[in-house]
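request received
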Amino acid sequence: MKKLAGISGLFLAVFVFTGVLEPNFLTGYNLQNTLRWTGLFGIISVGTAFVIITGGIDLSVGSVVGLVGVVTPMLLVGLGWPVWLTLVMVLAAVLLIGFVHGILVTRVNLQSFVVTLCGLLIYRGLARWITGDQTQGFGMAFDGLRQLAIGRIPVTHSFGLPIPFVILLVLAVASAVLLNCTVWGRYMKALGHNEEAARFSGINTNRMVTFAYIIGAVTAGLGGLLFALDVNSVQPAAQGSFYELYAIAAAVLGGCSLRGGEGSIAGVVIGAAVLRLLYNAINILGISTQLEFAIIGAVILCGVTADEMVKRLSAVRALRRAT
Amino acid sequence: MQAPPLLVAEKVTKRFPGVVALREVDLTVDSGEVVAIIGENGAGKTTLMKILAGILPADGGALAVAGKPVVFSTVRQAVAQGIVLIHQELSQLSNLSVGANIFLGREPRTLGWIRRRRIAREAVRIMRRVGLDLSPDISVASLPIGQRQLLEIARALSADARLIIMDEPTSSLSEREAARLFGVISELTAGGVAILYVSHRLREVEAIADRVVVLMDGKNAAELVGSDISHGTMVRSMVGRDISGYYARKPRLKGACVMEVSAAATTAWPDCSVSIKLHRGEIVGLAGLVGAGRTALLHALFGLDRFAHGKVRMNGQPLLLTAPRDAMAAGIGLVPEDRAGQGLVLEMIVQHNMSLASLTQRRRIVLGGAWERTFCRDMIRRLCIDSMRQRSAVRLLSGGNQQKVVLGKWLLLGPAVLLLDEPTRGIDVGAKQEIYQTMEALAEGGIAILFASSELEEILGIADRVLVMHEGKVAGELTRERMTEENVMHLATGQRAA
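response:
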């Protein structure tokens, strides 16, 4: 829990700061919107966190979001496939993507950066090619399905819990259980720290790493579906681009180490929330949106620097206790 | 008037958070002298060396080189005074050539251009001094570890070293390579260079040291000269007590054959077939020079590498080894050579390291429940690891305790065969003895132990019989009566035993 103190403090600071400066920030409508975006980005961040915990990186998330985003409306609207068949096909596609990433990293021994960078290029290219770069959408139809992204569970008359945020909470709880309460989670952390020692302990490290890439691709696919349902006008060249970096940023803010082994799901969810909160604050406080990236970058840098300081202090304290 | 000693360290003190690593330690080294520093792990040997070499600043005390007071705040300043430390893990850049490594950071140059021909010429001259006859252009990666060690000394000499500090220089050398190193050391000292020699291997210290400085708990405990330098006195002064019966070997009866390896060859040596029988309750030593194929054999038996051909049987049943989990399911455990890299996840806590190998075998997916905690607590008691440390990161433990965690990991699995690869490397005398005792107890409990070690004396001390490997095959087997250092060395170097 100590590890979450930093990121939670950052979250509170930005929240209070913005709320005091601009009371409109606290309206039900605005909070609801921020939560919805937190849900959408949180979903892809949680998957990315698994890959990072096993010591890898997934750069293909944004392109998977784009590919799923254009394929889903094409199958539903263009080809008139039933919803269930479309969803099964999309699921099969992202499972395959994750599996191939995992195989290339573990069996062919390629670096995850290279594999997923190629994925980023390939899936984006495919998305643009199969659509002829034409914008895709659901039109007026599929209102029921679209509720997954735009719906909410009413709490008061002006505020409701957005469905994507609810999906994120369910996903986060399941992921936290997987990571902390199952042998697979223990294995992922162990091999993230020291893959050779994990292998020498009889752990099927190849299988566990592949599993992590599959989780990453499936959550990217789920995110891609929800993002597409949300915007309803999907541009093949732009949908989801840079989202992998948001996901990595959220994971790192939430305490994942790119060296592998470290990370908590709750931290990643709060990390995603901080990013959306910052984005919202920049808009609502009237700060030039051109500064958006600069501000987010600066806050992440401060966050991880502070985290490193805290870690160093606690390491000194642990050493003192142990000796 | 007598010249002042080469190096005088007076009342050197060093504090780390929560611990005093050195408490007013004195040390004097004269030119041409071999001074050995010994002590258990945590006695302060490494810290003292690092202070002398300018890697760590001292908190108190004074240093003087040739009578002049000095203060080192960087390695460069120590090197300028002729003091060079050779690390246990050699610090060469293996992608560079021999010549480039010798002059790394001190390349002779003109206006920034490196003078390659001069480097080559000088490198050859310096390498001759340590008995190396190599082309300066070949890459370091192609050299065996023994030559790399000598290269490191050449590098020190090229910096005009007057005092060379060696940290466990023989830990990865074969006996022959070590003998060569000792030859070079005596030539260097004859030429006036002083050697500060840090080692756990007391037989070596006995053979080469003119003087032995014993550290205990960060303080000077004793200083031995001349005929006082013997294995027994050194052990006594290191641990502050008499370890009688250092290898307390009790006669054992071996049981039924549990593992049989027939005509098997590892992928590293596909033409050499190895046949081994292991019986319940026996400790079999696996001797041989570095690179003789001991580790390759153990890895193959644990399913980490494939056998090129051959059969393995457990209790008469054929066993197919494709991955460590196959070996584990058959009751085989491996304590690997590289504790930090292969044996442990240093960042994880003791309990999680211990349970890591047993989780799969228990066929449970959801963790939690008391078994993990209880099993680990019992194992910690059984192995006498300070029980307060069950939840602290393994990284913070001493080498001996870390090795016990690795042992515990495999004992939790309830193995029938335990493969140990250099189980006592780099751990102190007291912890070594505890590991020997644990091995004895396990053998008595019916486990078959195959135990590879480069330290002949421990193999001879504890094994019931010894298999000697040479270039991928078992060159011979020695029973208790024929187990002598000479016989093992003969077999290990490809000759016949007496």
